[in-house]
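Practice problem: predict the structure.
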Amino acid sequence: MTDVVIRGAAVYDGSGAPPAVVDVAIEAGRIVAVGRAAGSARRTIDADGLALAPGFIDMHSHADFTLPANREARNSVAQGVTTEVVGNCGFSPAPVRPERAADLERYVHGIGPRLDWAWRSFADYLGVLEARGVGVNVVALVGHGTLRIAAMGFTDRPPSEAELAGMRGELRRALAEGAWGMTTGLVYPPGAYAETAELVSLARELKPVRGLYASHIRGEAVTLHSALDEAFAVGERAGVRVQVSHLKAAGRANWGRLAEAIGRIEAARERGIAVTCDFYPYTAGSTFLSQLLPPWTHEEGVDALVTRLRSPEIRTRLRHELEHGLPGWQNLLAAAGGWEKVMVASVGDRELAGFEGRTLAEIARGSGADPFELCCDLLVRDAGATVMVIFMMAEEDVRAVARYPNAAVGSDALGVVDEAARVHPRAYGCFARILAWAVRDAGLVPLEEAIRRMTALPAAILGLRDRGSITPGHVADLVLFDPSRVQDRATYERPNRYPEGVEHVLVNGVFAVDGGRLTGARAGRVLRRA
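Answer:
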């Protein structure tokens, strides 16, 4: 007797092939039959009119900072996500050197809760996740920024030979302990202080284990193409696979350039560089509010940033640089088009919660303040922990990458510490939005192709051999949904609303969503690179 049989669903196996109406049988957490399921089962689900797909793989998440608190990952499993790839944009919770732990904690405060930091090595951190239990499978990458903090703090200079050797050693250790690769965040200090040669040197540690190099590239606005070229160069010189994180063209001056960027990726692939990308289906991004400021303000860490912002002389300089720019700097405020496009998503200090969900222009008008001074004051009062939503992409560019066959889907979710946390709506709606907007409403891709991009494609990029496909012997990570009714409901005003139309989600054969209701199961596993 099998555990579960799902009868009569339109089964999308993840390959991109059209669906077949067949039965799928599950036993001991794995798919044991696809076709006509004979015999009895402990539970049978009549899935007539529904679509069955492999569980979705979120290729870009920051849940490693929230899973210790948000262990059930309800925002993810409610969309059909069964695996999250974490450690992105150069941020990871480990490895930690004791003397640098406070720097790392302040660095990431705002994208997660106050963690206990009861770990030092990468293995320690993964062990904490396993011991506490998680609702999704976790594929963990190690952050270059975290490695750099451990080795040399927030110093704006190339590493010494000893410091670089220390970073390489920590990276090798993390890879041996199960990390799937390394990520960079080249707009975020201290990653922004790294030169290409440093990145190549570290990426060479990935080649022997076929690790992935995933990069939030050095610029997504005016320097988009040169930043892509740098990512390609790292992959080519180190001989590793490259994943371009959340591909976009930021800022009005760059709208319409994404087709050219995709052409650049395709040209690199034709040269033999194994490069892919991911995206989210929204025209706004989300990151630290302090990212509106140039990189020099972040040198020596968050405390130094806050101290600088208290200086009238520094503020005078900053105002000039925001208005006139700096060579090579991605000025997000200018790219967005002003303070009306910058919304406060969340604050670290709950006394400032009244700012959440409002633009800085709106807050300034209501208080009679200057928006720039308000921004600086907020960062000082909130100790740099404020997170923003910033509107700076064009719909036509989002549509272009949504059509691109080598673009996986990544929510870029951050800050989901509980169900009340104000976040970007992508944290609750990204994958449902692909099914509703990209497939059904806009007709950008057929359903079978959208499912491939959320399942088999990311599994292939990562090297997950028994997930991402509905195949006998594969793990029973599955999502059963109504393609005519599935809909994201999260908005910028109400970002933590769950989607509808997702009927059942199984993680390792255990129901995380059952009849449209979250079960609270913690059936996820930490997946270590073999």
